[in-house]
TrEMBL record:
Keywords: ATP-binding, Nucleotide-binding, Transport. SMART domains: AAA (SM00382). Residues 9-233 form the ABC transporter domain. It comes from the Bacteria. It comes from Dactylosporangium salmoneum. Pfam families: ABC_tran. This is ABC transporter ATP-binding protein. The keyword Nucleotide-binding applies. One of its GO terms (molecular function) is ATP binding. CDD domains: ABC_MJ0796_LolCDE_FtsE.
Length: 234
């Protein structure tokens, strides 16, 4: 496929509807390797649905989503789920950390699901927590943390496998400004260090300012900024 050497995700003519409600209309966009792209727009414009299609959570009704030579829209649910444990990281507005597990156990979980022994997985998880400034919370459970701390644990978990792409859906939407800034600063820094591309869904212009490029959506369509060229990535 054209541009595969520099592209992490290439979505072509994506369409998605919920019953009679059209969520996405002929959406095409590309995400370059290591690039941070913000997807913005009013509530209900299709931002989250787009993220869900690109990350394989949903299979679009129409179109193709290419990743490393594979059309995710044609992959099974099992194959797409496997990608989200390895090549993709996903971070939601409410981090969805497991309440019964400690911070280090939460972060180690994706590595264990990938076959790592707990001892090795926990050592990597501890480093991620320390990189995000919350190493002292390793043995704490979510109920003993603030919302911002829980979200940084969720971020550490999303990045612990060093994914090719991180999908972040309103990752600071439930946080105050200080906690949100801490999460975003950590997200950008670790993504840059790992070479992870980021698709960042947000309605907040201050959050979008952390990105390299902004895509604006309206009524299920991309208004501007949807595609990139090889020259732009270089």
């Amino acid at each position: 496929m054209t541009g595969q050497a520099v592209t992490s995700i290439d979505a072509r003519h994506i369409g998605m509807a919920y019953g009679q409600t059209v969520a996405l209309r002929d959406v095409s966009l590309s995400l370059g390797r290591g690039e941070i792209v913000a997807v913005t727009g009013a509530s209900g414009c299709g931002k989250s649905t787009l993220l869900h299609c690109l990350s394989g959570i949903l299979r679009p009704d129409q179109g193709e989503v290419w990743f490393q030579g594979r059309n995710l829209a044609a992959e099974s649910e099992q194959a797409r789920s496997r990608l989200r444990r390895t090549a993709f990281g996903v971070l939601f507005q409410f981090g969805q950390v497991v309440a019964e597990l400690t911070a280090i156990e939460n972060v180690a979980l994706p590595l264990q699901l990938g076959g790592r022994r707990y001892r090795d997985a926990a050592a990597i998880a501890r480093r991620r927590l320390e990189q995000l400034g919350i190493g002292e919370l390793s043995d704490k459970r979510p109920g003993e943390m603030s919302g911002g701390q829980q979200q940084r644990v969720a971020l550490a978990r999303a990045l612990v496998t060093e994914p090719d792409v991180l999908f972040a859906d309103e990752p600071t939407g439930a946080l105050d400004s200080l906690a949100g800034e801490q999460v975003l600063a950590g997200l950008v820094r670790l993504a840059r260090e790992q070479g992870t591309a980021v698709l960042l869904v947000t309605h907040d212009a201050q959050v979008a300012a952390y990105a390299d490029r902004e895509i604006t959506m309206r009524d299920g369509q991309v208004e501007f900024g949807g595609r990139i060229t090889v020259e732009e990535v270089r």
